[in-house]
Fold this sequence. Notes:
Blueprint: H1 2-27, E1 41-44, E2 50-56, E3 67-75, E4 105-112, E5 119-128, E6 133-141, E7 148-154, E8 161-168
Antiparallel strand pairs: 1-2, 1-8, 2-3, 3-4, 4-5, 5-6, 6-7, 7-8
Amino acid sequence: xxxxxxxxxxxxxxxxxxxxxxxxxxxxxxxxxxxxxxxxxxxxxxxxxxxxxxxxxxxxxxxxxxxxxxxxxxxxxxxxxxxxxxxxxxxxxxxxxxxxxxxxxxxxxxxxxxxxxxxxxxxxxxxxxxxxxxxxxxxxxxxxxxxxxxxxxxxxxxxxxxxxxxxxxxxx
Length: 172
């Protein structure tokens, strides 16, 4: 009986070591990733009227691969009452007023400035098509709940701004 007990413990221990090693191997960063990449994904602002897909920059689009960009991928009201797509009619640049809101990149140049223990992105900007304004933008995330992020848009000094909580959309 004692031999069976020792054998069971040895088997359990070796199984634990093998699965732990496999999990570490599977979840280890590739070297191209930074702790800031945890921001990549689909996010819904608190008003629930849109979804923003945050991704790393694409050189082919003139973006920095070290920065993060957000694109509007879903709108609750993607069309006007007459059925036409919502356009960026409030843009101060008249040449951009015919641009569709759905698909536009409205968050730009966000840089990961934090650490693995303090998740923070700064030095970006965000455009609000509802009023045609651009704001400086920063985000913070609590490492205990990486499915919620606080984004703060401001003009000039961060103290004079507004914070909005976004929730990650998780595939089910």
